[in-house]
Automatic annotation (TrEMBL):
One Gene Ontology cellular component: cytoplasm
InterPro entries xrefs: CREG, CREG_beta-barrel, Split_barrel_FMN-bd
Leader sequence residues: 1-24
UniProt name for this protein: CREG1 protein
Taxonomic source organism: Halcyon senegalensis
The keyword rRNA-binding is annotated on this UniProt entry: no
Family per record: Belongs to the CREG family.
Record's keyword terms, sorted: Glycoprotein, Secreted, Signal
Localisation per UniProt entry: Secreted
Annotated CREG-like beta-barrel domain residues: 26-194
Amino acid sequence: MAGSTLLCAAAAALLLLLAAAGGAIPPPEEAARMARFVLHNCDWGALATLSAQEGLRGRPFANIFSLSDGPPGPFSGSGVPYLYLTDMEISVQDLEINSNASLTVSLAQTPYCKRHRYDPQNPLCAHIIFCGSIVKVNDSEAGLAKKALFSRHPEMESWPKDHNWFFAKFNITNIWVLDYFGGLKIVTPEEYYSVKP
């Protein structure tokens, strides 16, 4: 009797641990799913560019950007981080010179880490680092990007038209996952896109 009570308590604790903002968090051995899960449950990320600005030229420069890989809800994400950008933005000016960038997203922005009292730097508060480049989306992909972004960030629709906003995506070439103790895990883009969050 005591054994089954202990087993039930352990199972309940595990279910609590697996509960996250958008559903059950993937287990640590499924790094590709974790990367998809974290991106899909994040509304913004830190984008790092190489600065083209006077006095900072060639130095790393990180900035916050709203993003989306699809409308909220389980299994509705494409895995592609879409952004809504303007050439007036300082980081976009950097990208015009060098389109290479890195993007970091973390479950620290969801209720998950607060609920479990995980500091944002704790590996259990999973974060993903993407490397790649930013590219404007073509006309055939613009509708998908618009739906992904405006469903999560409705304010974007009312942003000033004279800022010449455009849809862009983060073209992923490398992925690092930190979601457990023992260091970073490397996930290939092929592995990443072949799973659902």
